[in-house]
Predict the 3D structure of the following.
Amino acid sequence: MGMFDTIYLQNPIACKTCGADILDFQTKEFDSCMNHYRIGSVLSGSRVLSGVIKDEAYCRACSDAKRDAWMDVYLVVWHTILAGVETEECKAEARLTTADRLDLVQWIEEAQKKEEQWQRRYFSLHNELRRWHEYVEDQKKPPEPETENNKFWKALRSIRRPSEEITTAADPIGKILELHAPKKNEESPGLF
């Protein structure tokens, strides 16, 4: 089968055969490097600067029912940006002519918000794991004599100590990952 890219749809398209929602599909029209794309993504390896590309989407519901699971879709590419996915060629052509710079600004703003959200989550997770590592290393050390300098550093370490929820968990690393898991409305930054 080889490698492919995946296109995720914010607004699902309905299968023409069974009406089931298609939320994503795979394509080999671009780099085929397992990239993830959404509307507004810059397409790497696109042979089309601006235009409409005919492709096929796969319907899992039709496949499960032993029906033909493929349907035609049309990818709208505007200045190497995925501007839309349509089920009819005439709608794709219309979308291509209506894409404008305001769409571009909106896509960039959305991508920047998601990137910022993920950076905050990454640094929060990184800091929590670092605190856990320092806590574990401190537990291995023999007690230090009670000097003023040691009291200061001990107090500082106690401030940076992981929460009790983490330190008392049966699987502290699992608990940290659970606490930092994406919320339902968050998506991977790799999708842009």
User: Anything to note?
Assistant: Helices lie at 60-64, 89-98, 101-140, 148-159, 164-167, 172-179. The CA atoms of residues 4 and 31 lie 8 Å apart. The first strand starts at residue 5 and ends at 14. Residues 104-191 form one domain.
